[in-house]
Amino acid sequence: MALPRSMNLPASTTADAVDETFDVIVVGFGGAGACAAIAAAEAGTRVLVLDRFYGGGSTIHSGGVVYAGGGTAQQEQAGIADTVEGMYEYLRLEVGDAVGEKTLRRFVEGSREMVEWLGRQGLEFEGSLCPYKTSYPTNRHYLYYSGNELASGYADVAPPAPRGHRTHARNFSGATFYGRLRESALRLGVTFRPLAEVQSLVVDDGRVVGVEYDAPLPGREPGGWHRKFTELAAKAHVWNPAFGARLSAVAVAAARRRSTRRRVRATGGVVLTTGGHGFNRELVARHAPAWAGLTALGTAGDTGAALRLAADVDAATSHLEKMSGWRFLSPPSAFMRGIVVSAEGARIANEQLYGATLSTPLVEDHHAHGYLVVDAQTWRSARGQIREQSAFFHLPQLAYLFGPAGHRRAATLAELARGQGIDPAGLEKTVREYNETAAAGLPDPFGKNGEFHRAIGDGPYYSVDVSARASSLYPFPFITLGGLVVDEDSGAVLRRDGSIVPGLYAGGRSAVGLCSNSYVSGLSLADAVFSGRRAGAHAAGGSVPSTQREFA
Asked: Which is more confident, 12 or 109?
C-alpha cells in the first residue's frame, strides 16, 4: 500500500498559512491521547486534541483493566504481598525485548504512582479479589490474575500476584475509564475538536511543527443525531466489524461534506495516539499473513493512521508482525483441565495460559485450527460454573458452546475425533501420554500445573472447536501490537537511521511499547497511561514560551 506523504513545507509557507497555534497537538483522543493531553496540560501548556470521531477510541470499548502492582493500595486491601522486583521479573518474560530494561524498571517502579495518578483523575479501583482464574471478572470482583502469573514457567520465576486492576464500574469498565480521563483533560482546559481527520504533518526544516486536518467549522457540525449514530456505529464495529464499518462510512461521509481544510501549529510537539492498524488489511497481510482474514478488534479508526502520517519523516516501525488473538478457555475455569489439540490430535500449548498466549501458536503454527477435548466430569463442572463465573458478555458465548451447535459429544475418543475432524490415533496417543504423566505426578511437558493438570477421565467425551473461524457466536478477535519506534526516555518518534524526529511523539498502540511482544489483560491500558503521559510531558517540555511564539 502506498502511504500518502505528509507535507514538507518551507518555513515561510508554514507561517503564511497557519490558522492557529497551540503548544501541543494530540492526534487521537483515546486512552493514550487523553493521558498525553492531561500530562501536557498539567505542565501549563495549551493543548489541542484532534479526533476523527468523538473520542474514546478502542479504550472506551475495553474492559477498563490496568496492569499494576508492586504493592498497590488495592493489593494491600486484598491481603496480597507483591513486590516491585516480583512484578519486574514476571514482566521480563512477557515484555521480552519490546522495551529496554531501564524502561521496564521505570514502568514497574512507577506502577503504584500510576494508579494513584489515575485516582486523581477521578478513577476508582478496589481490592475485591477474584478467587478463580478468568479472562474477565464479574461485577463482584475488581482485582484478578489477568495474565500468566500462575502458570509454570512464570510462577517459577516470580511469586504470583494478581495485578489486573479493573476500573470500578459495572460490566465493561472501559467507558468509565475513558470518561474520567476525558473529563479531567477538559477540566484542565484542553481544547477538543471532534470529526477532525488529520491529513498530514507539517514539517519545517526537518522538524514537525503542526498538522493539516479537515473538520467542520464551528456552527457547521452535523446535528446531535450524528454523534448518536457514530457511537452506535462504533459499538456495532466491535461486535460486527463489517456492519459497523458500513455505519461508520455513513457518519464519516456526512462529516466530510461539511469539512474545511485547516492548518494548526504546535510550538512544542505533535503526539500521535491514533490506535493500531488491525483494520488495515494490506498491512496485516504483509507483516502477519497468518492473521490475514481473521477478525480485528477495535474501531473504524484502527487503520494505521500514525504509520501513514509519520511515513514522510522516515519514521521507523517495528513489531508489525506481532498480534494478540483472544481465544480464552475460561470462564468456565474447569475447561482448563482439558487439552487443546490440533487436527492431528497433538497438543498445541498449555491450556492454563492466558488466551493471547495460547492463541499465538494456534494461529501461527496450526493454521488457526484447534479443538478443546474434555471428559464427562469436566464438562459437568464447567457447566456448573457458568452462573458463578460469567460476566454479562460471556453468557451468549457459553449458551452457544453448551448448546447443540457449539460442541460435539461421543462415547469414545475415537468416535469424538472422527466427528470433529481430528486424527483418531493422534488424539488417543496424546490422551494416553497426558494421562500417564498426570497419574505419575510428573511435570506436564507443556507446563500445566496445579488443579488443572489432571488425567482425562471417563466418557462421554466432549469437544469444542476453538478455531479462529469456528463461529460468529464464538468470536476470535485480535489486535495489533507493533507501531512506530520511539525513544524510550521521551516518546519521541525515531527515524530508520535511529535519529529523533524533532517535534513528533507517539504513544499507545500507535507505538512500540510494553506489550508489543506479548499481551496480557491490562498491559495495553497501562502502556497507554505510561507512554501517553511520557509523550505529553516531553512535548510540553519542548514548547516555546508564550513570549517567543511567532504565530500566536
From this structure: 109
